[in-house]
Amino acid sequence: MSSARASTKGLGAMNGHSTHAAEGRFPAGRLAFPHRDLTGIGQLARHEILYLLAEAEQWVELNRQRSKHCDLLSGLTIINAFFENSTRTLLSFEIAGKRLGADVVNMQAATSSVKKGETLIDTAITLNAMRADAIVIRHGSSGATRLIADMVDCPVLNAGDGSHEHPTQGLLDALALRHKLAELGHTAEDFTGLKVVICGDILHSRVARSNILCLTALGAEVRVCAPPALMPAGIEAMGVHVFHDFDAALAGAEVVMMLRLQQERMAGQFIPSAREYRHLYGLTAKRLSRASEDAIIMHPGPMNRGVEIDSEVADLAGRSIITAQVEMGVAIRMACLDVLTRPARGVEGWAA
Amino acid sequence: MKQARPLTITGGQIVTPGGLVTGAVRCVGGEIAAVGAGVAAEGGDEVIEARGKLIAPGLVDLGVFAIDKPAFHFGGITRAALMPDQSPPLDYPSRINFIAKSGKPDLWVHPLAAATRALEGRELAEIALMKDAGARGIATGRRWIADSGVMLRLLQYAAMLDLVVVSHAEDAALVGEAAATAGEIATRFGLPAAPAEAEALAIARDLALAQLAGARLHIRQVTTARGFEMVREAKARGASVTCGITPAHFMLSDLATADFRTFMRLSPPLRAESDRQAALAAIADGVVDVIASGHDPKGPEDKRLPFADAAPGIAGAETLLAMVLGLVRDGVIDCPRAFDLMARNPAQVLGVDAGELAPGLEADIAIIDPDAPWIIDRRKMAATADNTPFDRQGTQGRVTALFKGGVAI
Fold first, then answer.
1. Which tens digits make up the pLDDT trace of A148-183?
2. At residue B366, does pLDDT exceed 80?
3. Could you give the ipTM of this predicted complex?
4. For testing contact with chain A, the best of B260, B264, B265, B301 (most A CBs within 10 A)
5. Domain range list for chain B
6. Which spans in chain A are helix H?
7. Which of A11, B101, B162, B219 has most Cβ atoms within 10 angstroms of its Cβ?
8. What residues of chain A lie within 8 A of the CB of B308, using their CB?
């Protein structure tokens, strides 16, 4: 721990972390990340999360160069199978694959047009028969990614399954947060003691679940805040503090993570109106003043400006890291694709 | 097939409501002629030696979703009450008539009439005509009747016809599309969930309406602590209510649904561990009247899906007996009570002359080795589908011979 702390004084030091620089810090070869798939943060140990974050640093660096390309995954085929509409995540995965030199194919099949069931299984079998080297899946049902992973022979990455998990989002949020903290002079590689508020539709949010798991694994003190109808039962068991009063949740918070109000998932009427939601849970400049002085503002996007977050807060220079989250997304996805394809690429020490 | 020759099963432990009796059972003309220690085979009888095993009534399975003879016979089930949730639903006298005859001679199927047309919960079906066609009760189906006015009229009608109403106790509006019980597991896995109180709400209403109508109510599955408490209170008041459960709800809690195992997808969903403990207590203290298999075989097209999209239900006919004998071994209940739960009580609810070894009743008899060990293996199941939640679990208790109307199956 102490040596790692010393070596992470700032961005410069972090950027030096590559497979070689991380040597000694993490278990050797495949022991650092012994999973075939990435279906959830829930399957990862703390050091495996830190390993993926460390691996992503080199890609953050590369993505800031003029030439953003390497041929690491040259010749591999990555299929992005999205059964739910997505623009940002799909784009992020596509860019990540392409920058690593892989052949990336996108398959968008909106759930409405696909009869769920056979189609999902058959699609998985079809993709497998086409000899994909990695499959990225987004699906509207919790557990769908795991189901497909059990039926194919290549690594599967979860790009969001129902209300279950969105692991790359949890990782990219951790990476963006760590960069910001380093900029502010924090030296730790994890978030021990950091007070984070996650506010919004916790019930339907896979982003919230992945973030809760990731942040608590890295030592943060997580508070979740939502109206009672959008707060899942028994969430305390995930090691978080439950709030319904946003002002109380914000007191002393060092990070405020706002979630999108997912109106398409609201089967019944969970909240009376967007206006009323903003009244109680909207992050306004006034409310933000209740948090700690230099509290960091995060949002997984896309934002409903004027509902869960006001524009002046979302764009607050020096405090909002919403665009940095998007940037880190590409790096994290590159790291995941690299790490998960190592056994297939025959990287030394990574034989399955 | 009619029994041609008298049959005497000797040298077994006879399961009677009063206790185990060493002796013989003699069957003549499809009926039980004599039971007890002093009974002996007469000249010309076919004699079967039970070799100290249990001689028990054939099981009466109250509330199955499919007629699956190989599975029923494996499990010692000689009568099954079929839920109206068929395709097409059992809401028409001729369908009831057909189903009532479909299992004979080696399995008697007692159809339960659909309470409402197409099981939609709106208009009453032709219940009196279905009763004449062979319906032994009325069932609301897999779902609750949400409209209290319809439910009251149904119960009044059922009381007039002296038919039991078999209800499903889950408040439909509260449950919605839920696939799990609200709690830590559903939250961690992001499953659509409803609070366990959905059951208590439904039971409270149905008990009140049944009392108002003077009807007999059988709640097919009670699965929560609060639900058992309400049935316990109603029985203490003298209400005409009975309730049942299936083994999954006293064997498993929602922890089993972790990792999206769709064979654990049930309706109602698996509950918290505290509810499972309450179920065991309710079985022990007599609140639970019936343990049924809930047999509902589902193939991969219904089960190899994401958890919330998969169909609920388990193939339970083969494992019912072994799971209930497990309760006997664990000291929750004694052996006679086990067969009250699986045979005598369900026969009484349905009003059929069976479920007990007594002179004059149908000679539906199972010879059971209660200690025979076996491993539940879904690759070797007799049922039409392999969706058992108990796969690869070791268990004890097997049927070694089964007789329907005095004829070996």
1. 999 999 999 999 999 999 999 999 999 999 999 999
2. yes
3. 0.91
4. B260
5. 59-355
6. 2-7, 11-15, 46-63, 88-99, 118-129, 144-149, 167-183, 206-217, 246-250, 274-281, 285-288, 311-314, 322-345
7. B219
8. 141-143, 162
